[in-house]
Protein backbone atom coordinates (compact mmCIF):
# COMPACT_ATOMS: atom_id res chain seq x y z
CA UNK A 1 0.00 0.00 0.00
CA UNK A 2 1.64 3.19 -1.12
CA UNK A 3 0.30 6.71 -1.26
CA UNK A 4 1.44 9.10 -4.01
CA UNK A 5 1.99 11.94 -1.55
CA UNK A 6 3.93 9.74 0.86
CA UNK A 7 7.69 9.41 0.40
CA UNK A 8 8.29 6.36 2.63
CA UNK A 9 8.92 3.05 0.90
CA UNK A 10 6.21 0.42 0.96
CA UNK A 11 8.07 -1.86 3.39
CA UNK A 12 8.25 0.90 6.04
CA UNK A 13 4.50 1.41 5.80
CA UNK A 14 3.99 -2.34 6.07
CA UNK A 15 6.18 -2.48 9.17
CA UNK A 16 4.32 0.42 10.78
CA UNK A 17 1.01 -1.23 9.91
CA UNK A 18 2.14 -4.56 11.38
CA UNK A 19 3.41 -2.91 14.57
CA UNK A 20 0.14 -1.04 15.00
CA UNK A 21 -1.86 -4.26 14.47
CA UNK A 22 0.20 -6.10 17.06
CA UNK A 23 -0.27 -3.18 19.47
CA UNK A 24 -4.03 -3.02 18.96
CA UNK A 25 -4.43 -6.79 19.33
CA UNK A 26 -2.26 -6.76 22.46
CA UNK A 27 -4.49 -4.03 23.89
CA UNK A 28 -7.56 -6.14 23.07
CA UNK A 29 -6.05 -9.11 24.92
CA UNK A 30 -5.10 -6.94 27.91
CA UNK A 31 -8.56 -5.38 28.16
CA UNK A 32 -10.17 -8.82 27.90
CA UNK A 33 -7.88 -10.22 30.58
CA UNK A 34 -8.45 -7.30 32.95
CA UNK A 35 -12.22 -7.27 32.39
CA UNK A 36 -12.48 -10.93 33.37
CA UNK A 37 -9.76 -10.99 36.05
CA UNK A 38 -12.39 -11.70 38.70
CA UNK A 39 -13.02 -15.15 37.14
CA UNK A 40 -9.98 -17.40 37.71
CA UNK A 41 -8.33 -18.62 34.51
CA UNK A 42 -11.19 -17.54 32.24
CA UNK A 43 -10.03 -14.82 29.87
CA UNK A 44 -9.77 -14.35 26.10
CA UNK A 45 -5.96 -14.04 25.91
CA UNK A 46 -5.34 -17.65 24.87
CA UNK A 47 -8.01 -17.60 22.17
CA UNK A 48 -6.78 -14.26 20.84
CA UNK A 49 -3.19 -15.54 20.68
CA UNK A 50 -4.33 -18.70 18.87
CA UNK A 51 -6.36 -16.72 16.34
CA UNK A 52 -3.49 -14.30 15.73
CA UNK A 53 -1.05 -17.17 15.27
CA UNK A 54 -3.42 -18.87 12.83
CA UNK A 55 -4.17 -15.76 10.78
CA UNK A 56 -1.07 -13.55 11.06
CA UNK A 57 1.68 -16.03 11.88
CA UNK A 58 3.70 -17.41 14.76
CA UNK A 59 5.90 -14.36 15.32
CA UNK A 60 2.93 -12.02 15.63
CA UNK A 61 1.22 -14.49 17.97
CA UNK A 62 4.30 -14.56 20.17
CA UNK A 63 4.61 -10.76 20.13
CA UNK A 64 1.00 -10.34 21.24
CA UNK A 65 1.53 -13.01 23.91
CA UNK A 66 4.57 -11.28 25.39
CA UNK A 67 3.08 -7.79 25.23
CA UNK A 68 -0.31 -8.77 26.62
CA UNK A 69 1.19 -10.62 29.59
CA UNK A 70 3.69 -7.87 30.40
CA UNK A 71 1.12 -5.09 30.11
CA UNK A 72 -1.66 -6.84 32.02
CA UNK A 73 0.71 -8.02 34.75
CA UNK A 74 1.71 -4.40 35.37
CA UNK A 75 -1.81 -4.05 36.78
CA UNK A 76 -2.42 -7.61 38.01
CA UNK A 77 1.01 -8.14 39.56
CA UNK A 78 4.45 -9.08 38.31
CA UNK A 79 6.43 -11.97 39.69
CA UNK A 80 8.28 -15.11 38.67
CA UNK A 81 5.03 -16.39 37.19
CA UNK A 82 5.21 -13.64 34.56
CA UNK A 83 8.13 -15.38 32.84
CA UNK A 84 6.32 -18.71 33.12
CA UNK A 85 3.19 -17.19 31.55
CA UNK A 86 5.20 -15.70 28.70
CA UNK A 87 7.06 -18.97 28.12
CA UNK A 88 3.79 -20.93 28.15
CA UNK A 89 2.17 -18.70 25.56
CA UNK A 90 5.29 -18.65 23.39
CA UNK A 91 5.41 -22.47 23.43
CA UNK A 92 1.69 -22.67 22.62
CA UNK A 93 2.10 -20.15 19.80
CA UNK A 94 5.03 -22.14 18.38
CA UNK A 95 3.09 -25.42 18.54
CA UNK A 96 0.08 -23.77 16.93
CA UNK A 97 2.19 -22.28 14.16
CA UNK A 98 3.98 -25.53 13.43
CA UNK A 99 1.21 -28.10 13.78
CA UNK A 100 -2.18 -26.37 13.48
CA UNK A 101 -1.72 -23.36 11.19
CA UNK A 102 -1.01 -25.47 8.07
CA UNK A 103 -4.49 -27.02 8.45
CA UNK A 104 -6.36 -23.83 9.38
CA UNK A 105 -9.31 -23.04 7.11
CA UNK A 106 -11.46 -20.10 8.21
CA UNK A 107 -15.20 -20.40 7.67
CA UNK A 108 -15.11 -24.22 7.68
CA UNK A 109 -17.17 -25.40 10.64
CA UNK A 110 -15.42 -28.78 11.01
CA UNK A 111 -12.09 -26.95 11.12
CA UNK A 112 -13.46 -24.46 13.65
CA UNK A 113 -14.67 -27.27 15.92
CA UNK A 114 -11.35 -29.14 15.71
CA UNK A 115 -9.36 -26.01 16.53
CA UNK A 116 -11.76 -25.16 19.38
CA UNK A 117 -10.96 -28.58 20.86
CA UNK A 118 -7.27 -27.78 20.39
CA UNK A 119 -7.89 -24.43 22.13
CA UNK A 120 -9.28 -26.36 25.09
CA UNK A 121 -6.19 -28.58 25.07
CA UNK A 122 -3.97 -25.47 25.16
CA UNK A 123 -5.67 -24.42 28.39
CA UNK A 124 -4.55 -27.71 29.95
CA UNK A 125 -1.11 -27.45 28.37
CA UNK A 126 -0.70 -23.90 29.67
CA UNK A 127 -1.29 -25.09 33.25
CA UNK A 128 1.16 -27.96 32.83
CA UNK A 129 3.89 -25.68 31.46
CA UNK A 130 3.32 -23.16 34.27
CA UNK A 131 3.65 -26.01 36.78
CA UNK A 132 6.96 -27.08 35.24
CA UNK A 133 8.29 -23.53 35.59
CA UNK A 134 7.10 -23.35 39.20
CA UNK A 135 9.38 -26.31 40.05
CA UNK A 136 12.19 -23.73 40.35
CA UNK A 137 10.15 -21.93 42.98
CA UNK A 138 8.69 -24.83 44.96
CA UNK A 139 11.05 -27.73 44.21
CA UNK A 140 10.66 -30.96 42.27
CA UNK A 141 8.89 -32.72 45.14
CA UNK A 142 6.07 -30.18 45.00
CA UNK A 143 5.47 -30.53 41.24
CA UNK A 144 2.68 -33.12 41.30
CA UNK A 145 0.74 -31.62 44.23
CA UNK A 146 1.04 -28.16 42.63
CA UNK A 147 -0.03 -29.44 39.21
CA UNK A 148 -2.90 -31.60 40.51
CA UNK A 149 -4.27 -28.74 42.62
CA UNK A 150 -4.31 -26.59 39.51
CA UNK A 151 -6.32 -29.00 37.33
CA UNK A 152 -9.74 -27.48 38.19
CA UNK A 153 -8.38 -24.07 37.15
CA UNK A 154 -6.86 -25.57 34.01
CA UNK A 155 -10.26 -27.05 33.15
CA UNK A 156 -11.82 -23.59 33.57
CA UNK A 157 -9.10 -22.21 31.31
CA UNK A 158 -9.85 -24.94 28.74
CA UNK A 159 -13.58 -24.23 28.82
CA UNK A 160 -12.96 -20.50 28.50
CA UNK A 161 -10.63 -21.08 25.55
CA UNK A 162 -13.23 -23.14 23.71
CA UNK A 163 -15.94 -20.55 24.34
CA UNK A 164 -13.79 -17.55 23.43
CA UNK A 165 -12.47 -19.29 20.34
CA UNK A 166 -16.00 -19.94 19.05
CA UNK A 167 -17.03 -16.34 19.79
CA UNK A 168 -13.91 -14.50 18.60
CA UNK A 169 -12.60 -16.58 15.69
CA UNK A 170 -15.29 -15.67 13.13
CA UNK A 171 -14.93 -11.98 13.96
CA UNK A 172 -11.15 -11.66 14.31
CA UNK A 173 -10.24 -13.99 11.46
CA UNK A 174 -12.47 -12.09 9.05
CA UNK A 175 -10.87 -8.78 10.06
CA UNK A 176 -7.29 -10.04 10.20
CA UNK A 177 -7.38 -12.03 6.96
CA UNK A 178 -8.98 -9.13 5.10
CA UNK A 179 -6.28 -6.74 6.32
CA UNK A 180 -3.37 -9.10 5.65
UniProtKB/TrEMBL annotation:
A single MF term (Gene Ontology): transmembrane transporter activity
**Which keywords has UniProt assigned to this entry?**
Membrane, Transmembrane, Transmembrane helix
Q: Name one Pfam family in it.
A: ECF_trnsprt
Transmembrane segments annotated in the record for this chain: 15-36, 48-71, 83-101, 113-135, 155-177
Note whether Membrane occurs among the keywords: yes
Q: What is this protein called?
A: ECF transporter S component
This chain's source organism reads: Falseniella ignava CCUG 37419
Amino acid sequence: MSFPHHSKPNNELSLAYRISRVGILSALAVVGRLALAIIPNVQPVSAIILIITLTMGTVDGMLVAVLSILLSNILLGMGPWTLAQIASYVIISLLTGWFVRPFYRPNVMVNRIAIAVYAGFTGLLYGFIISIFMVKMFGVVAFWPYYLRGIPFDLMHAGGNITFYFVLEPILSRILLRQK
